[in-house]
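USER:
I would value a second opinion on how I read folds in token form. Give me a protein, with the fold worked out from its sequence. Write it directly below this note and I will take it from there.

ASSISTANT:
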Amino acid sequence: MVAKIVSGRSIRGIMTYNEQKVEKGEAKMLMASGFATEIERLNFHQKLFRLEALTQLNSRSKANAMHISLNFHADDRLDAGRLQQIASEYMERIGMGEQPFIAYEHFDAGHPHLHIATVLIDRDGQRLSTSNIGKERSEPARILLEEKFGLVKAQGRKLCIDPYLKPAVYGERPTKKQLASITRSVMRDYAYTCFAEYNAVLAQFNVNVDWGFEDSVMFEKKGLVYSIMGDEGRLVGVPFKASSFYEGATMKRIEKHFEKDKERRLGYMQGLKERIDSVFDRYDAVSRATLLKALTAEQVALVFKQNERGLVYGATFIDHRHRVVFNGSDLGKGYSAKAIVERFSDRDEPRQF
């Protein structure tokens, strides 16, 4: 079992994501805890009201919501009853058992998995501590539950876990809904320190954001336009202005992230460098395609910036595991675009150990 925990600023966004999955038949509500009535009788707004009522008791707390995914191996055989037991016991063991929460079973991946929506403000208006929750509470809970329910152990294995956010696909759903969902999630969950880094993350999910030309009115007024990218990066469908989304993904809001996210991402820098180094250490010579594929297996995307002549002048690393973004040179000289390109070979030579 693999547990992923993301603290957020909007329980509405978390609930909307899961409820839309239910509407599409890609998920079902598995259980709810802490609601004073049968959850099946409640509509979306009634469910949301119960959770938002707690967040409103503490307006000072920025991160007041939590989105948890519990991912199981494809070989795990889990019926609804057992999934309910696992969800309840997991929440209890990470200290969230007294909080109201809703668990959804999702069917949009090749492995069984749950999503749990809850809030971090208790009934007294106190913000629950989540410091080191992954290492100190979630990890021990994972190990115990794997043993208790006979689950395939995550330790020492590579479980195939799909990204929590799927790329936009033109025509699959209304364009505006896809753009709004992806921009909201990226703004909320990723740590980036400049517009180029924000843009690089969106491109991972087939979304393009345009600021206009330097002498344009749109550029001067910091207007943004979002579009879906199709094959080979071509823009498809109708573009939408940032202000047209609920909680608009405007430049003004994006810029608020830059300074605070510099500090937020620092705790993940060394771990990211170690994962990158571990990939290079497997080869005496490595091609560009092989490196990118190996990094992807480590949940790291490497995005190169190229000019019109195809010359590489920049590199951006996106850590999808911890949702942080670094310019290559920010990690160190050895991670700059120039240093990485110089290490590329036209063949692969795995290192012999």
Q: What stands out?
A: The radius of gyration is 21 Å. Residues 156-163 have pLDDT under 50 and may be disordered.
